[in-house]
Amino acid sequence: MPEAGSACRRGSILGVPPPDPLPEPLPEPLPEPLPEPPFLAACRGGRPEHPPVWFMRQAGRSLPEYRRVREGTGMLEACARPDLVVEITLQPVRRHGVDAAILFSDIVVPLKAVGVDLDIVAGVGPVVASPVRDRAAVDRLRVLEDDDVPFIGDAVAELVERLGPTPLIGFAGAPFTLASYLVEGGPSKDHARTKALMYGDEATWHALMGRLAEITAAFLRVQVAAGAGAVQLFDSWVGTLSAADYARYVQPHSRAVLDAVGSVPRIHFGVGTGDLLHLMAEGADVVGVDWRIPLDEAARRIGPGRAVQGNLDPALLLAPWEVIAERTRQVLAAGRAASGHVFNLGHGVLPQTDPDVLTRLVDVVHQVEPE
Amino acid sequence: MPEAGSACRRGSILGVPPPDPLPEPLPEPLPEPLPEPPFLAACRGGRPEHPPVWFMRQAGRSLPEYRRVREGTGMLEACARPDLVVEITLQPVRRHGVDAAILFSDIVVPLKAVGVDLDIVAGVGPVVASPVRDRAAVDRLRVLEDDDVPFIGDAVAELVERLGPTPLIGFAGAPFTLASYLVEGGPSKDHARTKALMYGDEATWHALMGRLAEITAAFLRVQVAAGAGAVQLFDSWVGTLSAADYARYVQPHSRAVLDAVGSVPRIHFGVGTGDLLHLMAEGADVVGVDWRIPLDEAARRIGPGRAVQGNLDPALLLAPWEVIAERTRQVLAAGRAASGHVFNLGHGVLPQTDPDVLTRLVDVVHQVEPE
Hints:
The structure is a homodimer. By secondary structure, chain A is an alpha/beta fold. The first copy, chain A, has helices at 2-13, 38-43, 64-70, 75-79, 82-96, 109-113, 135-139, 150-163, 175-184, 192-200, 202-225, 243-260, 277-280, 295-302, 321-335, 355-366, and strands at residues 101-102, 118-121, 125-128, 168-173, 230-235, 266-270, 286-288, 307-312, 341-345. Chain A has a single domain, classed as TIM Barrel, CATH 3.20.20. In chain A, 46% of the residues lie in helices and 11% in strands. In chain A, the strands form two sheets. Chain A has a seven-stranded parallel beta sheet with strand order 1-4-5-6-7-8-9. Chain A has a two-stranded antiparallel sheet with strand order 2-3. The longest helix of chain A has 24 residues, at 202-225. Chain A is globular, with a radius of gyration of 22 Å.
């Protein structure tokens, strides 16, 4: 009596006990598992039915609905309001049909949450009131507790429910990039003070990076615990270092963050990191690549067993459509050399990008036949 | 009578005619030629008695005597005054004892000289009144004639005389970097408009780059004709391109500039160019390398027969002396893998650098024994 058996199982799931003991149900085929979302399949090295695609900064200024909803609300305020975070995170999924959402947040949110006095100034970027340049300042940086960021868990939980099968990517800035903002006091072209501390006082540097790794790991764990299906660690500025310096001053700390969130796929991304890819791959499942080297060359540098993400130049989206389409084909072809490919840009969507071009790009990527 | 022969030669050198005709002198070794300056020897792949050293932006804001002499004079005005150009160019030679001077100028000087309406705004950089974004604007860019820059020839000629055996390096910005300023209208983080033109209208792009190559070549030829002993072509922003795009959109034009000044050693430098070095080497005698990859690896990528220049991270000069000394030894050791090594920083001197550190660095490099 398979119907009765089904009813029984459905009943027990709903918490209603069956009225009578029933005979053992006949063996039957298990129901087909839901197919794994293409994004997660590619992160794990698979070849899903179509290449998955999302865009760094897909939730942002290229969308008129984003500019509308952000009107009159500062960046940090927006990041702390679950209703806005949910709405902004969903916007590009609704509009473009991308294969993953990424939590709308900012890399300085966890710093703000542990009490660092900072603000995001329009046209400038993060500005830190009291830069961190000595051991005493490092020692004042406290760890992040879950209840420092209740709005993150709330937003992620609601997003996961509303997104259904579309995975949500959790998000954090990596220790080096956070350190750069803290030490410089704001954005910097040359990261001179950061490097002066790094080269000049290695013990203080490692204390700072260690604490930032703890904060970052805690921030990502909150997101994973609330249901994020993957995480991306952004190390925007780390391309300013040589491989030897990356290995010595940065890698142990970024690695600790990645190791702390190993239950979901981990994407590790930086800009201008052609000579760091093999190091950034350690502890990561997916290595994000900017547009400077082709993905087949990136896959060679990274080695087997890890997926790549990227890598169309965001500036290309300002060119005519035929150029975009040709370059997209090239990126997809080069990506086949890797163990898994998540299509993306090589850096964030530029604010002046026409959102219709992004939608069209998603369609083109989705029409690619599996090999 | 070797003594009489010697006296005769000495006499004729002093312009005093010998009293009587003398018998044909015995064959003897020619007098030793003056040793080639270490900088030129290294550029040509030699191993001079000590490694030569100079610093990008050695003539600049790190020097109090520079700040004093520039007080109240705008950058472009200073570049057009031979007295100031001579004084500023000589300052670091006097103070640090570097092995080469580099002409004090700015990459936009030749653009200004052909009538582009631009200014250098303190704290911003070059600002172009009417950005160049279409074919008509490109067609309005005229070639550079020698008499557009009389102040350059005058300054170079006086410098060569005053510098004596110390070579003067001529200086120009490369076509891509100039194009970026012209198209963007000023400095840019993402070079988005530049790339939009490059990817979107290739014919106009090549017309622009071709004209900029002509202007740049003419600007360098003026310097070489007046006595510059070497030239450096700066392509500050070209590290934003992949190797394939560099080869297609930039290399033919930079190569044309280098080919036009082949009578002196040509240094070709850019930032973040680890994956472009093999292409930038073509037509160059010396390839400048930033701090991101070690010089032995750079030499491997460049191939044999070309010297390297670099590559201490300028930010390192803010660290304690022991760290600087250790890294300097590493740079010198790695440089031995190349066919010639000119010691330099991996980018320009940072304004906050202590000039005494630069002087000390020159001394340390000069004390290195040849292998």
